[in-house]
Fold these 2 entries.
Entry 1:
Amino acid sequence: MLESIGHLINGEIHSEEEQAQAVYNPATGEPCAQVCMASEQTVAMAISAAKQAYPAWRNTPPAVRAQVMYRFKQLLEDNQDTICELVSREHGKVLSDAKGELARGIENVEFACGIPELLKGEHSRNVGRDIDAWSELQPLGVVAGITPFNFPAMVPLWMWPSAVMCGNTFVLKPSERDPSCVLYIAQLAEQAGLPKGVLNVVNGGADAVNQLIDDDTIQAISFVGSTPIAETIYQRASEKGKRCQALGGAKNHAVIMPDADIDNVTSALMGAAYGSCGQRCMAISVAVAIGDKVADALVDKLKHQVEALKVGPGSDDTNEMGPLITAAQKDKVTNYVTQAVEQGAELIVDGRNLVVLGYESGFFFGGTLFDKVTPAMDIYQQEVFGPVLVVVRVNSLEEAVSLINQHEYGNGTCIFTRDGEASRYFSDQVMVGMVGINVPLPVPVSYHSFGGWKRSLFGDLHAYGPDSVRFYTRRKAISQRWPTGEAKDGTLFSFPSL
Amino acid sequence: MLESIGHLINGEIHSEEEQAQAVYNPATGEPCAQVCMASEQTVAMAISAAKQAYPAWRNTPPAVRAQVMYRFKQLLEDNQDTICELVSREHGKVLSDAKGELARGIENVEFACGIPELLKGEHSRNVGRDIDAWSELQPLGVVAGITPFNFPAMVPLWMWPSAVMCGNTFVLKPSERDPSCVLYIAQLAEQAGLPKGVLNVVNGGADAVNQLIDDDTIQAISFVGSTPIAETIYQRASEKGKRCQALGGAKNHAVIMPDADIDNVTSALMGAAYGSCGQRCMAISVAVAIGDKVADALVDKLKHQVEALKVGPGSDDTNEMGPLITAAQKDKVTNYVTQAVEQGAELIVDGRNLVVLGYESGFFFGGTLFDKVTPAMDIYQQEVFGPVLVVVRVNSLEEAVSLINQHEYGNGTCIFTRDGEASRYFSDQVMVGMVGINVPLPVPVSYHSFGGWKRSLFGDLHAYGPDSVRFYTRRKAISQRWPTGEAKDGTLFSFPSL
Amino acid sequence: MLESIGHLINGEIHSEEEQAQAVYNPATGEPCAQVCMASEQTVAMAISAAKQAYPAWRNTPPAVRAQVMYRFKQLLEDNQDTICELVSREHGKVLSDAKGELARGIENVEFACGIPELLKGEHSRNVGRDIDAWSELQPLGVVAGITPFNFPAMVPLWMWPSAVMCGNTFVLKPSERDPSCVLYIAQLAEQAGLPKGVLNVVNGGADAVNQLIDDDTIQAISFVGSTPIAETIYQRASEKGKRCQALGGAKNHAVIMPDADIDNVTSALMGAAYGSCGQRCMAISVAVAIGDKVADALVDKLKHQVEALKVGPGSDDTNEMGPLITAAQKDKVTNYVTQAVEQGAELIVDGRNLVVLGYESGFFFGGTLFDKVTPAMDIYQQEVFGPVLVVVRVNSLEEAVSLINQHEYGNGTCIFTRDGEASRYFSDQVMVGMVGINVPLPVPVSYHSFGGWKRSLFGDLHAYGPDSVRFYTRRKAISQRWPTGEAKDGTLFSFPSL
Amino acid sequence: MLESIGHLINGEIHSEEEQAQAVYNPATGEPCAQVCMASEQTVAMAISAAKQAYPAWRNTPPAVRAQVMYRFKQLLEDNQDTICELVSREHGKVLSDAKGELARGIENVEFACGIPELLKGEHSRNVGRDIDAWSELQPLGVVAGITPFNFPAMVPLWMWPSAVMCGNTFVLKPSERDPSCVLYIAQLAEQAGLPKGVLNVVNGGADAVNQLIDDDTIQAISFVGSTPIAETIYQRASEKGKRCQALGGAKNHAVIMPDADIDNVTSALMGAAYGSCGQRCMAISVAVAIGDKVADALVDKLKHQVEALKVGPGSDDTNEMGPLITAAQKDKVTNYVTQAVEQGAELIVDGRNLVVLGYESGFFFGGTLFDKVTPAMDIYQQEVFGPVLVVVRVNSLEEAVSLINQHEYGNGTCIFTRDGEASRYFSDQVMVGMVGINVPLPVPVSYHSFGGWKRSLFGDLHAYGPDSVRFYTRRKAISQRWPTGEAKDGTLFSFPSL
């Protein structure tokens, strides 16, 4: 019988009497565990546990709270192999890729260690005669996070370490596709000293999500996933009057200028487009070549490297790319490719018929490359979330920027050039939240915040980093004046000013 | 024929061929002007003007943009008498009160002068080897503000100076009850050098508001008004995927501790409860007395002062209180008082039958005081927005804080005490956004932000001050690495980390 | 033969062929080790090692450098018993006191972990048309710290963790009285991964200090010690054109208001005056009683508790107070007491003749209390650095503040009161760098900076916390404009402005 | 009889009974006024006035203080013609150059308007259980500034607006060469509402400077001038235990990369080298050409333009360059040129014998250009402070950076290139405080701070901008804990930690 993956509520694992759903190993196509799908009562219990834990946690000094994060960082490092194996088994990504993901997650834990500095409010002496004023960033209460399958270790660490260091308690609903590592990591946090109930994990589907959004105890929602779901969640949370940040999909363009070194660009694009089988919201899926000369050279080099991609199970670290997450996703990517051919895109490398020996039932899909794709094609407009890179040819940087700015998404982008002017024009004018200059995956480090523009993010504050501290706190403004023993003030009927 | 108040679009006043609605002088109860109610075409024209003006304004250096604010501040000061007369005539408030309001509005203009400092992003050298990263706070594009009748000069100045200094262009929809001063001030801004189309003013009602929310060009909505409208606007803007900050109603409590000087408290409460006829979102409408001894003394002193309140037209600066904004509001307040009597509140001073000689048709309402009000009564639960103060008696500070925390609103509050411990307990525990310690109207100065908690504010960022800069900008995170001439990088398929 | 304490240079211990000096166990009065006193060559070798290590360390990304601090924190916690035993043995303080010291030192290591956030510069887009500007906080190079005997574990951790995290390399010259724990801690840092040569420790006396100040390689000097030495060092470093922060002595006053709870005040003063045998720069050595009633009650209570002080070797954790650091210091304190009696101070408890059984040769000195001390007496004017508390009687808070402001030192102070007005008047008006309101030892937490006013600190930036990052870095301001391909600029002979 | 230029003390002009010294019009070589040289009594009177004005000014809320700056900005703009004529007459610079200078000075006034934001301290709730901590940046008291002749309008505005907005009062000792505009501007400040005694101006020489440094009332010294004087002042102020920032000389290099557009570079260098007759601490005086090809092209183009320089009195705005400041300075520059020729530098354009018709007694010196200058020559090592540009030829960017880093000065520098990698290598590695990338005079805007490295600045905080606020304030750290009514604390003898 398959291992059952439960919930972590108030420091205890709950896995009884619940509906369950299979978790697959995408490399074999076989179930490897089953995950409990939380009932309404289970979700309510998690919320209640977080509510109970809140008052004591709120009143714990931030510097004391931070001690948990220091120990947690150490435990994550000590147990990275276990975590990465869980990630690789259920998600499919190559072990070294899981390690990269975890490393970026640990970075967020490091950021959270600095909470005493980050929570500082602003103090003003004498805003008026003998009146002082200051601000405090107080915690919200119980907050919730909903995270996607593609970074099961990292994305939860974008959210809850910052939230709980701000003094909140948390209910996390991870993806039901690869829930094991989340649960394991949450238990490490408790081992590090996080009090019971401060972080609760519930597994489940849309019902659990809706319940979290609707429950009056939950003060804020953080979401990372696809744009349609992000939009729905943002609307539903706002309908309830809550604050929400909902990060959605992407179609990230790389612009290749004529002065770029094509060998370097090709290397960079191979990783950025095909790493993690293209299932990253920061993956490059469009290469915008400036001029045919650049395009021809680029396609030629890419072709050889895409054909040579080493695809196989993530547990073998010599592989460069693992499988897609589900059979359904494999079908979806296949359809996108077929449709693109029909719409006139030039298929340079076709990954549809890849078979990995010994893993014939795995959800593998070969690296795929298109040339001469146009903005009207679906393969250009849609987020494919698979190992498919399309080349679009334009004549100038201005045209490239205009193209990018017209796309509905605005998550990440990059430019390859040596030229200062080109880089500045690009970074200034492009309507995209994260910009790389010769950096193919410009994921900001943990002390800068992460967020896209346009339909890649709903809300005003970005994820992790400084913005997350503002998102997970409420500003309180205090004005203080002490009465002098003798003074008697007259009534001021008019509006007070200096 | 009455003067017609039009719209300011692309630097020109438009008042032709529109539906119009009367604007009243609340002191006389007579119409004093009529305001054009924008058609769909007019609103569209304003949005279009803002869109046209955006690119050039966005690219104007912030320090150059700031020059407009310096001149604008001077013009506001030079023309304060004219502005305050317009405010007083259409709103009804006493001239000195209008001056206080304007002074706080000018403070926001001063804050906006500092935009070069406020727009600074964060720069990190070597986030990885030879990789630098920085953030920019770029403008959103065209944004809109919707403002209430009660501070017609000040609240618009909370919004657009900060928004346009951030590089946005603006469409402002002020209250149709007292629109004249807004239009006058907007023209001063253009006189100060604000380019045409950067600030546009449209008058109108719910249709205009909905059109602003729904139009895809508008990137963000700021709203100040009542909670039901704030909630609706927040929901509708979020439904469209937009960022929104919507400030709503209030029921602000003042806690009077046994050690407080009752003479001082009485003076403070008189201004805070009856100034501007109670029509302030920061007005004190509940006095929470700790113990009967305090309550008895307080009610006794208040009674005499409320009875002695000098009520009359705002144009006479010796008056302490002017009329309510409309006849309908007068009826509403009357009903609240009548209902409270029926529900058992002890009516100490009854303002229902006040007649101001020579202004018999004015919307005047006398200062009203209740004692022994309980949390179950409507007069306690509802925002009355009139000159009505209720006294609630409790036995301890803990009980007072608990009372306040159970109310649906959490805008402002204050405590009167000399005691450090009481003040700290109160400011720490109370779930209210703006807290005064012996400051009856703790409106934060312009360089601290304004915002309530609970159902007093929807959104995560507060109004004006530092939060407004974050609200009116989008964060862009840039990661930069320059290729070295010789170096050839290998492909990194795994997720990049240090 | 006694253990020999050497230097740590470039990752190696050097203890050969040097002059040595005895290190005493102050509880026994016997030598417990001997410390090498660095020759000119040895100091030069340490400076050279730091210089060699600098370029690689400077170019290591801050987030990578921070990893050393995370591990170092863990090692300090794991080895706290060893460290505290070394501290107690050579300094004499009670073990629990040594633990308190170390805990505050570790706090500084935690602060240093946050270096990626702390090193952020400011970025401004469009300071002029198409001109961007930003600032970087770049390291200085090789910097030096000179630390006192009284906090051998903590004060070095105020300095070098922040300095090396900023990218500098360091030469530390600790006190020759209790050097063992410093060397031990430095070795833990290397065990944590600090590259050889980044932190070097040299033991020595005035010659070593002067050599460090004079050597052109050293870019900045941090010093903590007595005011005469601090002043000399500040002058000498400035003579060499270097930046210097030199923290000196103190005479910290506690003001006791009539509303204070005398039991609590007595408890607080006992720890603040006699803890660590009064050898703290933040020790309270003057109690300023407001009115005779307060003074009488206070002296009465203090008398009994001072007489009951449990004095003995620090290795016994049931003791409350250990010995003074040296026989010379014991003589000095004795002389101060004798002189005070001669000058008319009222001696309430006399600690001069204390004998600790079994430790007759130890440098013990009993808790001493004076009443009716006046500002003219030497015991009031001088920093005694021993377990001597004097009571000064004044009539008002204003008089107390005036008294404090006339003293040459301005390190720390505190007030005991419940009254908000008194606390605000005091904290606003008192010319002292660190103020406690009912906090007897207001040592700022690590993320706020430490520093006195007047002759307690020479320089402008305080120790540790945010100021230390500014002290250990040089600001670099970069203005950038990329040429457009076509544009030809005319010459601007006049000074450039917007 | 010549106009007598007095002192401004406590709001009154003092010009009686003092020694006086001639002020020259450098274009005519004739005296145009005489300046009073303050006696010891006069300086003491100025210090005393500042001391008297301090308490009231310190307690004036920053936002109220700022109103003076808003009005002052307006007055500076309204009177710019008068100011610039005074500057041009006594300094000699061309009117348009004086306007550029003044505009940058006004920028500093704008920065000072933002003082309420800039003075914010940091507030931390719960640094320990129920302990809050915050910092305040309190003013120092009376501070002094000593400013040079070359920017008589701008450099004083770097100092005192920031200092007085921080709450200090000020004594300014401007250059005795061109004192008129300083006095005029100070009077505008009083007209703007600056209270008497807050800003005092004394004219004088070295004795006045020394008196200011030595007087115990003066808390801090800001100086801008030549390096030998800066060093002396830094040493003397430090000897007195004071904080000091002393900005000295420069030898600013421009690096010209092979990819730079030589026409643009030539235009940029002409202004940067010869504007204001080279008498700017940010003037470019060394052009470092990478490779002979660049050097040959550059020298060729420069030659023609230098020969064509339009030199004449500054009052004629068609001139490009005015005279040197004094006859002595003319002799000094002449000697440098002569010596350079002797040492083997290749003289391309010789400005020694320039005669301006109608101004034969003026202190004019023609634009001078050297090629093939080597680091060993005096003309390379010394700050000439005249219209002399030298070309040094090197083979690589690395060599250029190494050259710059070996020079004793490190004020400003720039690079001309389109290449991102070159610019980043340069800005990262060069040991210079202000770096321009295609910006020939990288004077930071007012909201970034100004300061050189190495012997171009003594002290740790830079001039104007954020650093100036830290320089002109003392940090006060407050820790606050309110006693609970019941609680009785035990004594803590050990050092307090969390």
Note: Chain A touches chain C through 29 residues (CB under 8 Å).
Entry 2:
Amino acid sequence: METYRAIVTKRDTRAFDSKPIPEDVLGRILQAGRMAGSAKAAEPVRAVVVRAQAQKEALAACGRFTPQIPTCAAAVVLVLVPEPDQPPGQFAYFRGPFDAGRAGQNIMLAAWSEGIASCPVTLHDNDCARAVLGLPEGHLVANVIALGYPGGKDPTTGSRPRMPVEQYVRWERWG
Amino acid sequence: METYRAIVTKRDTRAFDSKPIPEDVLGRILQAGRMAGSAKAAEPVRAVVVRAQAQKEALAACGRFTPQIPTCAAAVVLVLVPEPDQPPGQFAYFRGPFDAGRAGQNIMLAAWSEGIASCPVTLHDNDCARAVLGLPEGHLVANVIALGYPGGKDPTTGSRPRMPVEQYVRWERWG
């Protein structure tokens, strides 16, 4: 799929088919995440791939709006590793989620270009997620990308329109 | 450009040519950012496009490693609007930068697919950036995407390799 078309047609979706994702396709999707750039080339993001049903359900219990996780084919948990030279303060974690967003979007676009739908899911309870995944202290789940072939309706129809471009874009200054 | 190829060949670059970005191309790049999904469809991200030299230089003075801003063709400032139902606490801002990362990656990939290089730049002093851009209180600059045609060496050569895939990807659990 052409890049711009993939970008502008991609919709987040929650309805998945039960069909598994072939290993080679999953490999390309993960490679897309790995190739995302990061601030100061710190590479703070890791991907934990969860496909076992019990593990997906345990993860889903760590968030408040997570029905996509048990029903997806593969949940890619984007983990932020603490920066070595920095206390785990707001500053480091502010850049970290931005880099996780870059990786997540790469993953979702690579998936979408192969006909695989996706939805980012927030896990509200990081201690719960750390226990389920066995993450070391200071590691943070930035987001979970639920992946799967679309189930139910066409994922590109019926989605909420975006805000008008005049509201999204400003020129030189805010007002 | 094919989506996967755009994703895996994209490198962050700091060296730009002085050639301006045509209006229609810039329009598609901004549309790519606008179409990025967001948590709960909250659409917390806005794009302030800065091309005036004096304004680029004023912005650059708000960060510590910003030589890309005065030399780029267009700086797209990704601004986070406070969420209406939430105090401006860490939680909201934690999701916000992830969504800004999604928009930023869309912008950078759409640009890259048209031969335009880019680099995200952190502005360390948000009060400074707010003053330069005239942002309302509580608005946060998540990142600045510096855009321009590549100058100097081929942006895809000589970049640092990524961590090995075995380090990036884990299966089911961390350890």
Note: Chain B touches chain A through 74 residues (CB under 8 Å).
